[in-house]
Every structure is written in C-alpha cells, then in structure tokens.
Here is the input.
Amino acid sequence: MATINITNHKTSSAKPEKDKNPTTKNNTGGKSDINSILEVRYSPLAFASGAYSLINANAGSQFTRITGTSPATKTYTSVQIGPRDHIELNSDLVYCNHSCAPSLEFDMKKFEIRVVKGKDLKIGDPLTFFYPSTEWDMAQPFDCNCGAKECHHWINGAKNMDRDILGKYWLNEHIASLLAEENGTQNNFHEAENGTQRDQLRGNNL
Here is the structure.
C-alpha cells in the first residue's frame, strides 16, 4: 500500500497542462487519460510527492475508473481488493496518498474512484483516500502527518484501528466483512452507495 506521500523510480516529470475549461464533474465514464485529471507533484524529499486534481468534481461523483492493474502480493504500494487479494495500480494513482480527511474513496469492488460525499473536489486539491478503507493489515505502517483536525496518527490498517473510528468512514466490503468475521457478529458497516447493510462476504475474491 502506498505510504503517505510515496516516491517511486521517477525523479522528474513534465506536469500535464491543465484543461483550460475543466468540467464541474467527470463525465468521461472513467475513460480519460489519468494525466488529464490529475498531476503528480514530485519532491526531492522522501515521502513528499503526491497527486493533485486537475478538475472540479461534485461530491459523490465518479472521479475515474481503475484500469491497467496487475495481481500483486502485499507491499507498501499495493491496494487490497479482497480478504486475501492485492493489486498494483500501475499508474500515477499510486501517488494518491493517505489522509484522515480524504478527498476520494477507492471502491475496489467496482474498481472505481469516487469523490467523497459531502465535499466537492476542486482543482488543486490533494487526491487522498483513507488507507484502512482498503487495507486490513498494512505492509508498511506509518505515523500519519496529514494535518487533518481528526488525524489518527498511527496508520496500520483496519485490523489495528479503533472500531468507533472506522465506523465514521466509508469502508470497502472486504474490510467490513473481515471486521464482522473478527467480531463474530453480523456486518454493521454500510455500503456508501445505498446505505443498506450488506451480508458478510465469505471468501469472495474480487
């Protein structure tokens, strides 16, 4: 799983030109070139690079589809998509860092990225998501310094986070399922799309 502001083998890159007339929401069905909707701001400092939005998008709208992935073992750059399965994003989406007040949701059942409900995305906003919403037990835990008022500091996956804190966030089905199985109870976490309770997933690999 990508740590908070990761760097990769790239040391420099020409930033894509911003759309002179960015849309108010992404109506491309996720088929846009990633570099038309985000830019990576590289830093020579360790853990100081990140992705930023090139478009405005309405709260709850689709930001992009997730495509071009490959199966992976759990690493600091992988994303968990099921109880046991992980992928590599193989794109600049890997620069979407963690925040305790995220701007995006990574839905790994639908393979889409949405703007969080309740807050529109603006040009120049950092593109972030809540890592425990996808990660059960992280390969590389870290001390978060996202700066959010509600920062939870030590981030080590949903397995190791206070359940009351997790209940405040949208969570992927595989995370809700693993929490329910660990607790031995019916799944009390809600899918954000419709707010209804979901049955536990029983080893259903995505």
